[in-house]
Design a protein that fits this description.
single chain, 3-stranded antiparallel sheet, 58% helix, rod-shaped
Length: 167
């Protein structure tokens, strides 16, 4: 057990092993690397560990600087495109719903205006005209409340679409 502890401590204290490496040009034009000079023109080269990152490191993937954004992969780009398209479809649907609701509101108001034209020019007609005016006002208020909610939902969908892929 003591031997294992001593061996572990000794291996921990040892630095990385370094040897001199020489780069030599062969007569046929090829380059050879050796641990001893292979010719008079052999040049020693530095083989210390690289200070960069290995291919699997986060730094190698473009995350070396704090706050740096890495580029999405093809699959991630396709996923972003699909999510954007789905959100755009929801936006288009919501815009059609808003247009249909506005058309419905305008049709009801036109019907009420038409009924108002037939009010007689007497006390009963004036009372009926007032009643129709109040109904028109309530109809407009009800539809405007509904349209506000629909427009808020449309704005939320647009924000979501614009944020897709920006994380």
């Amino acid at each position: 057990m003591k031997m294992l502890l001593v061996a572990t401590l000794l291996s921990a204290m040892c630095g990385p092993a370094q040897a001199q490496v020489y780069k030599c040009k062969q007569p046929d034009g090829s380059t050879v690397f050796a641990d001893a000079p292979c010719a008079a023109g052999a040049k020693p080269i530095d083989v210390s560990p690289a200070s960069g990152s290995a291919p699997g490191d986060a730094a190698h993937q473009g995350n070396s600087a704090p706050g740096a954004r890495r580029m999405p992969t093809r699959n991630e780009q396709a996923d972003i495109a699909v999510r954007r398209r789905l959100l755009q479809n929801d936006i288009d649907l919501q815009e059609r719903r808003i247009a249909a609701t506005i058309d419905e509101m305008n049709a009801k108001l036109a019907e009420l205006r038409n009924r108002k034209r037939y009010a007689n020019n007497n006390l009963a007609g004036a009372t009926w005209e007032q009643s129709i005016s109040e109904e028109m006002s309530a109809t407009s208020a009800g539809y405007e409340t509904e349209l506000k909610g629909m427009r808020d939902e449309l704005a939320r969908l647009r924000q979501m679409r614009d944020r897709v892929g920006q994380q």
